[in-house]
Peptidylprolyl isomerase
Amino acid sequence: MRGWVRGLSVGILSGTMTVIAWGQTPPSAPPAGRPPAASATPTGVVPPVTPSAPTPIPNGPAAVVNGQTIPEKAVYRALRQFPPEHHALARKEILAHLIENVLIDQYLTAIKVTIDPKEVDKVIQELKDELAAAKKDYKKELEALLLTEEEFRAEVTAQMKWEKFVMQQGTDEALKKLFDSSPDIFDGTMVRARHILINPGADENKKKEAAARLRGIKQVIEQEAAKAVAALPPTADALAKEQARAAKIEELFAAYAKQYSECPSKKDGGDLNFFPRAGAMVEPFAQVAFSLKPYEMSDVVATEVGYHLILVTARKPGTPKKFEDVKEDVRLLFAMRLREAVVQQMRPRAQITIYPPPGSSTPAGTSSPSGVTPPAVTPPSASSGVTPSSAQSPAPPDRKTP
């Protein structure tokens, strides 16, 4: 257990916790029935960066979850990694992750998962020793990350509680069941896909508009692909027709992605390259992608960061593995799904107030079912839950680190 926690501790102190933001506002919808130009120029999204100069540290709350405050400073710690033009969307992702962390810790507290303070002391001391060996000062590392010793200790304790819970739930029997039911997750099978992401936010009307736009794009692409096949000579065989259809679908899908997607992959026409069934994409995305055949498009796929249209372009079969050889990979997937199961059960019962960014005049928003004590969480089945980016960062719409 300590290995995972110490790995997280080093990650915190080395500033490696990163949240992916999508700071691109979609342009207006294309004219009905007309695909975009294949040469559409992408505007691109700049990836997270380390700040070159200090900025004022904000005060006050960013959110309150069942009476527990998340300080704006906690959001700011991660937000510093992003260029200013992407702060609005990055802040939403960071805050969503911090809220999930609080919900999980409240759940673990409610079911009385505890950690001996001496165990926490031991982990932190080992970290201090490692930093000293690397000629780094523990307190200065904390200061650079705007963490007090108390805050860092709370982070480590929360992670140790979570891992203890995972070990309790993730019995060999549960892990073996997950392994047996999902062979393509662990055998190395990979698919290559493109996607178009639209992030409509929480507004229900914008969600409907986003879903309608993606379905409209899919319809136009399918119509244009059918025209490309119909334009072939009457002597064209089935292979030639399929090649023409696939080429037109990929050409138009890439053009639409460059023009309308809000994911950094837009610069590559939405191409995500090859990825495995688990560990790279969030579960709803991966589940749908792996169900598609090459050059088949999905319906609208919803994840926590928006709506996606997915096109699979290739598939690489894997090699069967033995459970013992991939047991720790199975445990990691189990933990990811268990995390999502806890969040899904806690969130509807939570009283969450989200405050606007510093300097904004927007009023605080509140989601209201009350109640802090959660029901017992059922360990996820092999097909349940979502695969988030781990306990360290919220899952992006495509891969963990695009």
